[in-house]
Write a structure and sequence with these properties.
Blueprint: E1 22-33, E2 36-43, E3 50-51, E4 54-55, H1 63-75, E5 77-81, E6 87-95, E7 99-115, E8 127-130, H2 132-138, H3 142-150
Parallel strand pairs: 1-7
Antiparallel strand pairs: 1-2, 1-4, 2-3, 2-8, 5-7, 6-7
Amino acid sequence: MTLHVPKALPLSLQAAHKTDVRTQFGALVYRIYNNKPQVLLVTSRGTGRWIIPKGWPLDGITPAQGAAQEAWEEAGVQGKPSDRCLGLYSYQKSIGAEREVPCLVMVYPIKAKKLARQYPEAGQRRRKWFSPKKAAARVAEAELAQILKSFHPDILL
């Protein structure tokens, strides 16, 4: 077996000062279906585009636990997070009608055990399983697409 090591893409953080950049933790939720990996994407609340669950750091919990919390709130995922960061990606988060802040998202894998029917944002988002390659084609961020495209659970062993 050969593991594919993704090439790093340049991150695009357009901020006046590095202190303007915000950190978030994202969840790459996955499962094995018919002996092949699938990843779960959710829609954003504002534009309805496909994204991974992500959110702000929370006091008292690790980044991986924070990603798992976001996976629960945004997608109803119950699963096991890994402390291994799969990569980083950047994007511009809209804050209000006319302001954006640059965000750097650290992505953590979460193996899904169960998807709940009722969860905090159930009526606000859609969720769908994709192959890693198809998920990569549906997200807007090039760095996230590269993480998704190159993901396989074997890299976690």
